[in-house]
Specification:
The protein is an alpha/beta fold and 418 residues long. The protein has two domains: 103 residues, Nonspecific Lipid-transfer Protein, Chain A; 297 residues, Rossmann fold, CATH 3.40.50. It is 48% helix and 17% strand. It is built from 18 helices and eleven strands. Strand 8, helix 12 and strand 9 form a beta-alpha-beta unit. The protein is globular and about 70 Å long.
Length: 418
């Protein structure tokens, strides 16, 4: 098995410098010796077998259980070396069989009924708010930022994300807006305070997020115009001029795509506009990552356009704009990972070492997925009537300019303290 591991890693790491120490103390080198040196150590023979047999599941488990120890560099450096070399290469036959089996089982692993959705959300989003305060921006935006310039700060890029999305929504002062998956309330507050809409209503399945969002609205003096509910999207009633959903669709599950878009069709006014912002796969349907699905996002599934578009069409909605944000999330995750690692001791005070290793791996693997694999962010604009939005995209830049001025007038936005 050790020979097979050496053969696999030598094929993947042709450039760079990787040293692998085996359980018996022997080691081997991979790469051409260039770049930042990376060294790992495997502590037992079962760890060697697991890394060869099922790296997609086992690598994260081995790292968080300290059976794969990074002795030089970081886990991000190791993942970047391996995934950069894996581009364009076929996985071993046993990995392809595992992938096929996981793809066939995806409807079971992402069977996100109402009850299961609530427990899935609680697993991740009802963690101690002090954990998220360690690495998120001041507005607690837990989704892909929008980097208008390479040198933008995380806070600037997250503000630009909200501005870009709201510009695409083409909101007006009389509008009533629904935010599906509202997080800690930042988008609803931006819609009312900065964009000036009449009313915004956000739904979440996280009790922790709901409490913070409601408190923020009250502190901002917007409680009469901003409402939040602990509510499944399938249970929302009424009609809305605009619907926005950012970073929530990944928790739907492929089996419920049709239900989701039919629900949005029911809730959207005849002249309404919807903006869906979601992580997705640019290379077609895939299976959920098994490690992420078990430890970080139970029930999570990254959609492809080929899966979403038929469901959108069947629901009676029209796609009027698609934008693909390619490396924006990689930069966002880099900020999050660096912030988390800089304050890792604070995270350790909240949780244990295994949890911190798990989150370090989660942030590193997510960043490298956007950098080296076929993972992107889709922004889809949906309507019921083609006339609901302007004929050209010029209005987006024009509205962004108006929102920048409104941001200046509104002033600094308060931090979402947990």
């Amino acid at each position: 098995m050790e020979r097979l591991l050496r053969a696999i890693l030598s094929q993947l790491v042709e450039r760079g410098s990787l040293r692998v120490t085996l359980p018996d103390g022997s080691s081997f080198l991979c790469g051409d010796g260039t770049g930042t040196p990376v060294a790992i150590r495997l502590t037992d023979n079962r760890a060697v077998f697991g890394l060869v047999a099922d790296p997609e599941m086992q690598l994260g488990e081995l790292f968080m259980n300290r059976r794969l120890i990074v002795e030089q560099g970081t886990i991000y450096d190791f993942l970047a070396l391996v995934l950069a070399g894996a581009r364009g290469q076929a996985a071993p036959w046993w990995e392809r069989l595992l992938d096929q089996g996981r793809y066939l089982m995806r409807h079971l692993t992402t069977l996100n009924t109402k009850g299961r959705s609530r427990s899935n959300v609680a697993h991740h989003y009802d963690l101690d708010d002090r954990l998220y305060a360690l690495f998120l921006d001041a507005d607690w935006q837990y989704s892909c930022a929008y980097f208008e310039r390479p040198d933008q700060s995380l806070d600037e890029a997250q503000l630009a994300k909200k501005r870009h999305i709201v510009a695409k929504l083409a909101v007006e002062p009389h509008h009533r807006v629904l935010d599906i998956g509202c997080g800690w309330g930042g988008m609803c507050l931006y819609l009312t305070r900065t964009a000036g809409v009449r009313e915004a209503y956000g739904v979440t399945l996280s009790k922790e997020q709901l409490e913070v969002a409601q408190r923020r609205a009250a502190e901002a003096g917007l409680a009469e115009r901003v409402g939040f509910g602990l509510q499944d999207y399938r249970d929302v009633q009424g009609r809305f001029d605009r619907i926005v959903s950012v970073g929530m669709f990944e928790h739907i599950g492929a089996r419920f795509f049709q239900t989701y878009f039919e629900t949005c069709h029911r809730l959207l006014d005849e002249n309404g506009v919807m903006l869906l912002h979601t992580i997705g796969c640019s290379d077609g349907p895939n299976h959920p990552n098994p490690w992420l699905n078990r430890y970080i996002f139970p029930g999570g599934y990254l959609p492809s356009l080929s899966e979403m578009l038929p469901a959108i069409e069947k629901a009676g909605l029209i796609v009027t704009d698609i934008e693909v944000l390619r490396l924006h999330y990689a930069k966002t995750l880099q900020h999050w990972r660096e912030r988390f690692m800089a304050q890792r001791d604070e995270a350790l005070a909240l949780y244990d070492e295994r949890f911190c290793l798990m989150w370090e791996f989660y942030l590193a693997m997510s960043q490298t997925a956007f950098e080296y694999q076929d993972v992107v962010v889709f922004q889809l604009q949906l309507v019921k009537r083609q006339e609901a939005v302007p004929l050209t995209r010029d209005y987006i830049a024009e509205r962004e300019a108006g929102l920048r001025e409104a941001e200046r007038v509104a002033g600094a936005q308060p931090r979402a303290q947990g």
